Amino acid sequence: MKPFLPLKDYQVLITRGKGQAEGLQTLVKKNGGTPLMVPLLEFTLPENLEEVQERLNRLNSYDWVILTSKNGVDFLFRLLGKQQHVVLPKIAVIGSKTEEALNAYGYEADFVPSEYVAESFVSEFITHLEPGERVLLAKGNLARTVIAEAINETSASCDEMIIYHTILPQESERQLVQLILNGKVDIITFTSSSTVNHFIQIIEQYELNTYIKDLVIACIGPICARTASRNGLHVSICPDVYTTEAMVEEVVRYIIKKNPKGGTIK
Fold first, then answer.
1. 44-166: same fold as 11-41+168-258?
2. What pTM was estimated for this model as a whole?
3. Where are the alpha helices (DSSP H) in the chain?
4. What percent of the chain has pLDDT over 90?
């Protein structure tokens, strides 16, 4: 008996950054789809490295450090260098993937929220703070300010530190335009608001809106979906659990619902 491949004949655009899309690529292939790898994110060190290093040298003056993504974890330890098991403050993370990345460096999270969005994180996290405690939020340049603002409204305080920058890879622009113009994309997956914003930037620059109006849009979570909707995209898929595994599961359910036999519905 042939395996059931619900995404057979579907070409799935993966916009996640380089080095982070392999898992999503594997899941798409496993379900019979064709992954189209066009990273709309690239991550670089910040320009003000001296300021960042100076603050990292004073990590022991903080009671907590917050890491909001796998990138945040990777860049933090990249900036800390090859020191032997650095003594860190208590660590709070958003999401299971961030926690897994932290574990890979030999550290355990002291706080993980029940929901992986900033608003839910901070509402739970502030109950763990003592008056006067100092928090360091290590994040990317495009991350929202929700967490720091909420903490600073309490009797604790929060400093923000940009430890990486998110940019649009130049080579991806040409790739995306060609795929869209040639009708090679059926499903688009977005894993962050940044991927959405960079996608829209290219679509508007080349006036490709009419080419994407019938494409299936999948977003990893509500913040990403909200960004997509604000930019005029119709989001068909957004899982309750904010992981790539859950997103692909929802994509499969969506396709099966439209076509119980799997494969193309075009």
1. yes
2. 0.76
3. 22-30, 49-56, 70-80, 96-104, 118-125, 146-152, 170-181, 193-205, 209-212, 222-230, 244-258
4. 82
